[in-house]
Every structure is written in structure tokens, then in C-alpha cells.
Write a structure and sequence with these properties.
The strands form 7 sheets. Strands 6, 7, 8, 13, 14, 16, 17 and 22 form an 8-stranded mixed β-sheet that branches. The protein is α+β, with helices and mostly antiparallel strands. The protein folds into 2 domains: 21-118, Fumarylacetoacetase, N-terminal domain (SH3 type barrels), CATH 2.30.30; 126-415, Fumarylacetoacetase-like, C-terminal domain (Fumarylacetoacetate hydrolase, domain 2). Strand 20 and strand 21 (314-320) form a beta hairpin. It is 17% helix and 27% strand. The protein binds calcium ion (CA). Calcium ion (CA) is lined by residues 128, 201, 203, 235, 349, 351-352.
Length: 419
């Protein structure tokens, strides 16, 4: 098994097999791209400046001397593979270039706990899908009709809406309870008030690499070439605002007040060992969505909740990325089939990822079944939705033999409304 000269704990999300991309603020106040290895980050700007990305794809490109990943993401798979093998080689226990150069190591490695990470991608557009069947069934049953929980189109196309990139925030950013129009239970006209139903949504999103030209769809069998990597997402939601506004055009202000992302972008290459069989689809989708190239990944996803009264976070959800009905490739093929062009850095959320079992539901709405079955916390507190001071902590990883590849965390606390 490949090992680094940097010690990595077996349950760390960041062994040499992962090498996710991030960015941090240097002592000089600059933004440098980085990768994670164990509890350290390694500064890619410095490695690039030293000429260590010297393969045919990246030599002279200065791809890691930008303050965002977007240029590197636009270069495509050959460059991504070369960067990964260069980094795995530089960080490996057998390679002396970095291992034995104390001066260079001083400039390259920093403790994650001592630096401030920033999101490494400039996200242009954000689309959120609705691709977990169990989630769609649960929400359909609660909001509309348990007998017809799935709308007729759901098994024929990956349903989505266009979100806002402007309100994407990184893990660690606290969010204010939004205000909006809410229809009181049994009432006929809305009131303006802070939402009483703040919720999280457990999602995984992918970030686009090379663009397609307007008018040129991405065929499903080429979709993976346009996918750079994945992040963990908390799609904060206000259920009472959502319920009143969502028909006929879908979610709007219930969703666009904050979307939290993990600081690390995990590449598809790093997730390769966790590929698993995609679920059977019945009915068969139309030809442009039908391919055996559909991928599913076995990634364990957890949500912990910590209220202001609790000393330790408590696990309230265990789900898995493989629970999705529609794959990333299908999402991208569908998104572009009308000629819509995607741009490098665009973010595509999976939709809430709920499994079949109750403990695997990926939102409070489902876990507490619209307030009818509140979550009981170990200290006796009850929750149907999030209260001010509650912190939501999501994490996700794939477990291989002897190492795990993960996203780290996406965390955020609910604060009182803006006054
Ligand atoms: Ca969502």
C-alpha cells in the first residue's frame, strides 16, 4: 500500500490515496492552493513555483499559482491524473525530493489546525437535483399525497432547480435564521416572520471541469470527463417558507439564503476504489440517459447535531451516497441535453440523500416526520427543526482496506435572524 513520509492516522480522511484540493490564507495574506495529507496541508503554489509539476501536461502552466482551482479544473483528465501522480510521488515515503529537503518542507507543510482554509473554487452557477427516491417519496408523501408521492416525471428525468451561487458559504460559516412569508396552519393568508422550520439537507455535489459549448450536449458516456470532483453540501432549508412558495415553479427563498460546502474537493480519481453498482432503474430511462457508465460510490455520510446545551455532538443520521437513483453522469447529460452549457466551477448538488431506513433520512423534516415524531437527544432535549444555537456537522468518507478517503466536515450553526 502506498504510504507517505507524513504520518497519517488510519481513520484520517486524508491519506496519500486521497489528496483533495483546497486553498488557504498564507501568513502574507495570499490565497494558495493546497492539498491535505493527514493533519497537514501542503502548499501547491510553492511546489509549482519550485518546478515540481514538471510532466508534459502541467509543465509551464503555473496551474497551481492561481488563487482558485478553476484554471486547473478546466484542463481536463490528463492534467488531473498527472497532478495526482506527481503529488503521490512527491509525498511518498520512498521519494527523497521533498522528504529529505528540510528547508523546502518548512515552506510547504502547515498544520491544518493553524491555518484558515477558504473555498478553492469560484462557483459560477449552482444547480440542485432531487435524485434520492426515498427523499422524493418522503417529501411527496408529507407535502402532497402519500398515495402518489412521486410525481409522474420523477423516474423519467433527474428533477432539479437552479439555485444561487452567491450564497454558497464554506464550512464553519454560521447562518442566520431567515425571514419570509409563511402560511399559518389552517390560515388563508400569509404572515411575515422568521422561519420556525430551519432544516438541513445532507447532499454531495460535483464540480464541473471542462466546459461544453452552448448548443452541444454532453453525452452520458462522456459526462465523467467533465466532472472534476465532489464536495459535501448542507443545503439549508426553511420548510414553512418552502411549503407556501414552492408551487408552481419550485423552491426559491426557502433555499437560497445559504448553502454550506466542505473545504476539500475530493477528485473522482480518489473515489475510484469506492465505485459500486448503480441501482436498477425501472422504467428504463430514455436513450440519452441510459448507459452502463452510470456510477455509484459507496460513501458513508453522517450528520451530527450539537445544541447549545450539549457537550458532545450526537449522530442523528447515517446515510450513503450510493442511495441515489440518478447518477452524476445522468444529471449532467440531462442538464445539457437541451444545449445548455456548463462552465468550469459550476456546482451540482445531488439533492438530499435519504436511504430506506428511518435513521438514514437526510433532513430533519424526514427524521422527525414533519414534527410528528421529534428527535429525542441524549440530554432529553427534543427537536423537530433546528433551534438557534444548534450546530449541524456533516461528514463523509469511503472506507478501503487500511485507509479512508473523506471530505472532512461541513459544519455550521444556526444564529438568530438578522435584525
Ligand atoms: Ca436540496
Amino acid at each position: 500500500m502506498l504510504r507517505s513520509f507524513i504520518d497519517v492516522d488510519p481513520d484520517s480522511h486524508f491519506p496519500i490515496q486521497n489528496l483533495p484540493y483546497g486553498a488557504f490564507i498564507t501568513d502574507q495574506g495570499e490565497i494558495h492552493l493546497c492539498t491535505a495529507i493527514g493533519d497537514r496541508v501542503s502548499d501547491l503554489f510553492v511546489l509549482d513555483e519550485e518546478g515540481l509539476f514538471n510532466g508534459p501536461e502541467l509543465s509551464g502552466q503555473m496551474a497551481f499559482q492561481d488563487s482558485s482551482l478553476n484554471y486547473f479544473m478546466s484542463l481536463g483528465k490528463a492534467a488531473w491524473n498527472e497532478a495526482r501522480s506527481t503529488l503521490q510521488s512527491l509525498l511518498s515515503a520512498d521519494e527523497p525530493t521533498l522528504r529529505d529537503n528540510e528547508m523546502l518542507k518548512d515552506r510547504v507543510f502547515f498544520k491544518q489546525s493553524e491555518i484558515q482554509l477558504v473555498f478553492p473554487v469560484e462557483v459560477g452557477d449552482y444547480t440542485d437535483f432531487y435524485s434520492s427516491e426515498q427523499h422524493a417519496r418522503n417529501v411527496g408523501a408529507m407535502f402532497r399525497d402519500p398515495e402518489n408521492a412521486l410525481l409522474p416525471n420523477w423516474k423519467h428525468l433527474p428533477v432539479a432547480y437552479h439555485g444561487r451561487a452567491s450564497s454558497i458559504v464554506m464550512s464553519g460559516t454560521d447562518v442566520h435564521r431567515p425571514k419570509g412569508q409563511i402560511l399559518p396552519d389552517g390560515g388563508s393568508s400569509p404572515k411575515f416572520s422568521p422561519t420556525k422550520r430551519v432544516d438541513f439537507e445532507l447532499e454531495v455535489g460535483f464540480l464541473a471541469g471542462p466546459e461544453n459549448t452552448l448548443g452541444q450536449p454532453i453525452p452520458i458516456d462522456k459526462a465523467a470527463d467533465h466532472i472534476f470532483g465532489l464536495v459535501l453540501i448542507n443545503d439549508w432549508s426553511a420548510r414553512d417558507i418552502q411549503k407556501w412558495e414552492y408551487q408552481p415553479l419550485g423552491p426559491f427563498l426557502a433555499k437560497n439564503w445559504a448553502t454550506s460546502v466542505s473545504p476539500w474537493v475530493v477528485t473522482l480519481q480518489a473515489l475510484e476504489p469506492f465505485k459500486t453498482k448503480a441501482p436498477r432503474q425501472d422504467p428504463s430511462p430514455l436513450a440519452y440517459l441510459n448507459s452502463d457508465q452510470r456510477s455509484a460510490y459507496d460513501l458513508q455520510l453522517d450528520v451530527h447535531l450539537k445544541t447549545a446545551q450539549m457537550a458532545q455532538p450526537y449522530k442523528i443520521c447515517m446515510s450513503n451516497y450510493k442511495n441515489l437513483y440518478w447518477s452524476m453522469e445522468q444529471q449532467l447529460a440531462h442538464h445539457t441535453v437541451n444545449g445548455c452549457n456548463i462552465r468550469t466551477g459550476d456546482l451540482f448538488g445531488s439533492g438530499t440523500i435519504s436511504g430506506d431506513e428511518k435513521h438514514s433520512y437526510g433532513s430533519m423534516l424526514e427524521l422527525a416526520w414533519m414534527g410528528t415524531d421529534p428527535i429525542i437527544l441524549p440530554n432529553g432535549e427534543e427537536r423537530s427543526y433546528l433551534e438557534d444555537g444548534d450546530e449541524v456537522i456533516m461528514s463523509g468518507f469511503g472506507q478501503a482496506d487500511g485507509y479512508r478517503v473523506g471530505f472532512g466536515e461541513v459544519r455550521g450553526k444556526v444564529l438568530p435572524p438578522y435584525s
